[in-house]
Design goal:
Layout lengths: L8 H5 L20 H16 L5 H18 L12 H19 L1 H7 L4 H41 L1 H15 L11 H27 L8 H4 L23 H12 L10 E6 L6 H9 L2 H6 L2 E8 L4 H13 L8 H12 L4 E8 L4 H8 L10 E6 L2 H7 L7 E2 L5 H12 L9 H12 L5 H11 L5 H8 L15 H8 L3 H9 L9 E2 H10 L11 H14 L4 E4 L2 E6 L2 H11 L3 E4 L12 E4 L6 H6 L3 H6 L2 E4 L10 H6 L5 E3 L20 E3 L20 E4 L20 E4 L4
Helix pairs in contact: 3-4, 3-6, 4-8, 6-7, 6-8, 10-11, 13-14, 17-18, 17-19, 18-20, 19-21, 23-24
GO molecular function: ADP binding; ATP binding
GO biological process, one term: innate immune response-activating signaling pathway
Keywords: ATP-binding, Leucine-rich repeat, Nucleotide-binding, Plant defense, Repeat
């Protein structure tokens, strides 16, 4: 089956897979009385404060503290198995420290854009937080392991286990006993590590005072975010309009349809040039999907090129876009021949979006098979580079240059997204501030849409005024190309969305996201804050919806609401704010490995095993994500290499030619997400049963894996299992 299975621990232990229905959403707050509304709003603000990257540590510290108190008061504890008194004192102090630091995080995250000292403070804080999370996660792993061993013992000798429980209950009046591995050495180790964590956070807390970070409740910046309007499969009709570009739209459509009447026999190439965020891709999308174009071109294809102009990869993707079938070939010549077969005798339209290549020779080689199409075939390219446009342009075709939109057009876009569903005339103060904000967008529709989507959730004048007066409008990063308006849309994201958004920088600019894909990855990293009885996956799905409503994700086309993409400038924004903590290797080597926690690799120019082995041990051990994409063939991972990656939460090896996993995979005690889809795996190691934290195991298209081993059924924390041998 290729369907998503949510698996309960009890179902796994009984050797069955049970699909759990999603529970109903939490009921909306009562609207009876202003006091009730105020209380609900206060609860929302408390939830926002608890959604920072320290929230997981805070929660786990509380859980460990409860366990310590329980063991201190347990009369059934064996001599030497009770925690030292200093441990509870350190845990209490740690909780107070975390509360103080969390109170200033909103201010710090806004100031880090312009203040290097605050940026360094946050970097140090995140390092301490990661280390603390690892320590607390090890405690949790120990507890899960002991519970698993107890279950196995119960299954082997149920009579003995039952007699032991009755004996304990008679003596202490409780059925709870400490795990068998909890002894004096265990408590001393935990106490020592917690004391170090406390010391590290005390140093961080003292530094916050010297930086002058102010305490905020998050209300002014985030308003009532976190509760976007419900979504549906119907696409917003406003997105189907072509605002302010009607003349360019008609000119492009007419030029394409008349290209077969030209006396010229070669391929027609029309470049669309303009700065980032000006609407090049949006314009071409409207051309591509126009009914006259769909009727006039029997074959259409769309490829996002981006900065890496790899001839073999691009030719393969052009073939796949035209045919909607995968191409397994790896050499350029046979791929070009297959593409020529597809194009012969057909009139086609190809869109090459976001082209950066300025080398004429590379373009000539990519163009070579395209000239075999029927007369009247055409290519539209979008680019920020005038040089790239001139290289691709064919004689007789003019370059379509897009300038910034008029103020009126930008205001219409902003007004639609900011006041969607409301009458803007009822909010005169907000309209006046909004008009001033639009003037600062510089005629860029992407900026107007992003800020309008962000302010849709803000109803207070102070919140809008705060955006208008923000120092971030003075932000200048010409090298990174980050627009101040887009940076504002990031700064004003609720904390729980910031981490999820930045995580997407691990993927390529043209990556087609699926909701289930992101949900599972975010859950594995602990980004999702549980609320009530709702399943964590359901909450994560609402995070995706929020990012779509804020225009940070956009649907790939109007007919497919299951797939969405990031605009290249939005991807740049995610990459910029990821700093060195998230790193994607395509051609370059790792720039600053000392701070990297999440790593994706998509390069054929490096041997992956050697690249990973070359990482400093502290970096390899601190990695939380390793995601391999289109990489040089890798046949396996050594025991030593796997042991070095001991901190991983996510290991994604899909579509790699890996035949077996080493036994040392069982040492990845923090692992939550393991993706082996499309690999040549024929057998899973027995040590997989040691992955007590594992939430997700993906085994799609594992054609050599005949059966699921019994070891999978012993993974009590497993929530999602996908297994299929074929598509």
């Amino acid at each position: 089956s290729d369907s998503l299975l949510r698996v309960s621990p009890k179902a796994l232990l009984s050797s069955g897979l049970v699909v759990l229905p999603s529970p109903a959403s939490d009921p909306p707050p009562s609207s009876a009385g202003s006091a009730t509304l105020r209380n609900h709003r206060q609860q929302q603000q408390q939830q926002l404060m608890a959604s920072t990257f320290l929230s997981t540590i805070h929660q786990r510290t509380r859980e460990l503290n409860k366990w310590v108190q329980k063991q201190e008061g347990s009369s059934s504890s064996a001599p030497g198995s009770t925690p030292p008194p200093s441990l509870k004192d350190d845990l209490d102090a740690l909780q107070r420290l975390l509360s103080r630091i969390e109170a200033v995080l909103h201010d710090a995250e806004e100031r880090e854009i312009l203040d290097d000292s605050v940026r360094l403070w946050l970097r140090d804080l995140r390092k301490v937080a990661y280390d603390a999370d690892d320590v607390l996660d090890e405690y949790e792993y120990q507890r899960l392991r002991d519970e698993a061993q107890a279950r196995i013992q119960d299954q082997v000798s149920p009579d003995v286990a039952d007699q032991k429980r009755k004996s304990v209950e008679q003596v202490s009046g409780s059925t709870t006993t400490p795990p068998p591995s909890v002894d004096a050495l265990y408590w001393d180790t935990i106490a020592s590590k917690v004391k170090k964590i406390r010391g590290d956070f005390e140093e961080i807390s003292e530094q916050r005072l010297s930086l002058g970070l102010r305490t905020e409740d998050g209300r002014r910046r985030h308003g009532n975010s976190g509760h976007p309007p419900p979504t549906s499969s119907v696409i917003d009709v406003f997105q189907a309009q072509m605002l302010g570009r009607e003349r360019e739209l008609d000119k492009l459509i007419n030029g394409l349809l008349l290209s077969d009447q030209s006396s010229r026999s070669d391929l027609s190439v029309i470049p669309v040039v303009g700065m980032g965020g000006v609407g090049k891709t949006t314009l071409v999308q409207h051309v591509y999907n126009h009914p006259r174009i769909c009727e006039g071109f029997g074959l259409r294809g769309w490829v996002c090129v981006s900065t890496h102009f790899d001839l073999t990869v691009l030719t393969k993707r052009i073939f796949e876009s035209f045919t909607s079938t995968a191409c397994d070939l790896t050499e350029l010549d046979p791929i070009q021949r297959k593409l020529i077969e597809v194009l012969k005798g057909k009139r086609f339209l190809l869109v090459l979006d976001d082209v950066w290549n300025e080398e004429g020779e590379l373009w000539d080689k990519l163009r070579a098979p395209l000239v075999y199409g029927e007369k009247g075939s055409a290519v539209i390219s979008t680019t920020r580079s005038a040089i790239a446009a001139r290289i691709m342009q064919t004689s007789g075709e003019s370059i379509c240059r897009l300038e910034c939109l008029s103020y009126d057009s930008c205001w219409t876009i902003f007004q639609y997204y900011a006041f969607h569903g409301l009458n803007s005339s009822d909010s005169r103060e907000l309209v006046e501030i909004g008009q001033k904000i639009v003037k600062r967008c510089g005629g860029l529709p992407l900026a107007a849409r992003a800020l309008g989507s962000m302010l849709r959730y803000e109803s207070e004048v102070d919140s809008w005024e705060n955006v208008l007066q923000s120092e971030i409008w003075d932000f200048d990063d010409r090298k990174g190309g980050i627009l101040p308006a887009l940076m504002l849309s990031y700064v004003h994201l609720p904390p729980h969305l910031k981490r999820c958004f930045v995580y997407c920088s691990l993927f390529s600019k043209d990556h087609r996201f699926q909701k289930d894909e992101l949900v599972l990855l975010w859950v594995a990293q602990g980004f999702i804050q549980c609320k009530g009885r709702r399943q964590v996956e359901d909450i994560a799905a609402t995070y995706v919806d929020e990012l779509i409503h804020r225009s940070l994700f956009q649907y790939r086309d109007s007919e497919d609401t299951s797939t969405f993409v990031m605009h290249d400038l939005i991807h740049d924004l995610a990459q910029y704010n990821s700093r060195s903590e998230y790193c994607r290797i395509e051609r370059e080597v790792l720039y600053d490995p000392s701070h990297t926690r999440h790593l994706s690799i998509a390069t054929r120019s490096h041997d992956i095993a050697e690249l990973l082995a070359s990482l400093p041990s502290s970096t390899a051990g601190g990695l939380r994500t390793l995601h391999l994409f289109d990489v040089k063939e890798i046949r396996g991972l050594s025991n030593m290499l796997m042991s070095n990656l001991r901190g991983l939460r996510t290991l994604a090896l899909s579509d790699q030619h890996i035949r077996e996993l080493p036994d040392s995979v069982g040492e990845l005690k923090h692992l939550r997400h393991l993706d082996l889809s499309g690999t040549d795996i024929a057998k899973l190691p027995q040590t997989l049963c040691n992955l007590h934290h594992l939430h997700t195991l993906l085994l799609r298209r594992c054609k050599h894996l005949d059966t699921l081993p019994e070891v999978v059924l012993k993974l009590a924390n497993l929530r999602c299992l996908e297994y299929s041998r074929y598509l």
